[in-house]
Request: fold
Amino acid sequence: MSVPLKIALAGLGTVGGGVVKLLEANRELIARRAGRPIEVIAVNARDRSRDRGVDLSRFDWVDDTAALADRADVDVVVELIGGSDGPALVLAKRSMAAGKAFVTANKAMIAHHGLELAEAAERAGTAFKYEAAVAGGIPVIKGLREGTAANALSQVYGILNGTCNYILSRMEAEGSDFAHVLADAQAMGFAEADPTFDIDGIDAAHKLSILASLAFGTRIDFGGIAVSGIRHVSSGDIAQARALGYCIRLVGLAEAGSHGSFQRVSACLVPLSHPLAHVLGPMNAVVAEGNYVGRLLFQGRGAGEGPTASAVVADLIDIARGEVGPAFAMPVSALANATLADAGERRERAYLRFTVADKPGVLAELTAAMRDGGVSIESMIQLGEADDGSVFVAMTTHDGPARSVQAALERLEGSPSLTAKPMWMPILAV
Reply:
């Protein structure tokens, strides 16, 4: 019988428990695909007494997380703790220093320390894999790293956060406001008690930084991403977007061109004819544009026990087969430094929403600001009066540089006509 691949598992939450269950449920199939059995032999978690719905008695329990890396009987360390630093990072460094393969679902750690860890894996001649870090069970990391390896990719973008997509989908279907749907999502377990990383776009930005590196052959540049979230999206925005033929999604977008790279996470108006418009609830989707392969769409469940555990075990199967390649599709020394394009020169259409006092001359003030900023208005509509006497004015622009929209909004700063800060969302091109 072939020698088993022996695993140490740090973290026994939803995903960790799912990995144990999956390895047991599909044991024979996994062994045939991997060429040998895959066995968990040691585990670590904060609470030994918690019932995780799986028998852990057959595994060695290790109280010191980092000590998993020191075991001579372990081939691969799987980290499912989370956090960009702390025990997860210590375990990663120590595992690769010991020559052990390392598998993680930790997008924050990769976004901040991925290149350092990839270099450590290269020095040790071992594997560093992270399919589960982006889009759960969707094989987008493998798809970009291997499936599109012969292509020059110009764009990679998509819906990278299931919590935000669930909230926006619910608002769209029910006409509910953001605060109500968020509270409901927290009660149902779709959103964390502190949802900041999700709703402010940080989680999606972590994932986008990884995708951009794989797509463009550049060093990870999390700090170069312009990040905003969905806190200020109102039910009125969603209704107006629908009337114009759009829906609203949180979209992470990375582009590469002759003038440098552009990376942004923001709420966007997505045409109803675009594939992303039909990605609902907690689903994720990623689109990649290659010069020979054309447009590729990866879609599926982006989180949860089953999908994420599936991605972790897929990495383990690769390692069992002896597949050890560069973590970012090429050696770290070959990755280029990302040169940021001038975001102000990027041309696109935009949606603008103003909450203004209901008095004569306000529309003229708005249109004058657009004119003076160099913005061409495509459409404009004024909606009904709110309880405080303010009204909702929405407009879309023709294609133009982002700098012009910013200049127009600066002309309106401090205007007594505005009763709330304007909302600006890009319109995703088809």
In short: The two ends are 53 Å apart (CA to CA). The mean pLDDT is 94. DSSP finds 13 helices and 18 strands in the chain.
